[in-house]
Design brief:
The chain contains 4 helices and no strands. The protein has 131 residues and is mainly alpha-helical.
C-alpha cells in the first residue's frame, strides 16, 4: 500500500471496512449478551447490563487507546530504520506499562467508588428514559 502516491479512496475504504467490521462484531456481541441475560435473568439482569455497559466501554477504550497508540508509534519507528530497534522496543514497553497502569487505575476507581458510580449511571439511565 502506497500511502503517499496511492489513491486515497481504496485505502480509506479498506480501513473503513475493518473499523466497521470491528464495530459490528462488538454490537452483535452486546445484543446477544443482552438477549441471553434477559432470557435467564429477566429485566433486572438486562438493567444491570445497561448500567455496567458504560463502565465496560471506558475500560475497553482505554485498552484500545494504549494498544493502537503504541502500535502506531512502534511501527513508525520500525519503518524509519532498522537501527532504532531499541527505541521501538522502549515505546512498546511504555505502551504495555501504560495499559497495566490504566487497568489498575480503572480497578481502583471501580472498587473504591462502585456505589456512587453505579448510582450515578442508574440515575442517568432513569433520567434519559423519562426525557
Amino acid at each position: 500500500m502506497d500511502f503517499i502516491h496511492g489513491k486515497i479512496r481504496p485505502i480509506y475504504f479498506k480501513y473503513l471496512a475493518a473499523a466497521f467490521g470491528s464495530a459490528l462484531v462488538t454490537s452483535i456481541y452486546s445484543i446477544v449478551d443482552m438477549a441471553m441475560v434477559g432470557q435467564y435473568q429477566g429485566p433486572d439482569g438486562t438493567a444491570a447490563l445497561a448500567v455496567v455497559a458504560p463502565i465496560w466501554n471506558i475500560i475497553y477504550s482505554l485498552g484500545l487507546l494504549m494498544g493502537i497508540g503504541g502500535a502506531v508509534i512502534f511501527s513508525t519507528i520500525k519503518g524509519q530504520s532498522s537501527q532504532k530497534d531499541d527505541e521501538a522496543g522502549e515505546f512498546f514497553t511504555v505502551s504495555v506499562i501504560g495499559s497495566i497502569l490504566l487497568a489498575l487505575l480503572s480497578w481502583f476507581v471501580i472498587v473504591v467508588f462502585d456505589q456512587p458510580l453505579l448510582t450515578f449511571l442508574e440515575l442517568k439511565k432513569i433520567y434519559f428514559h423519562l426525557v
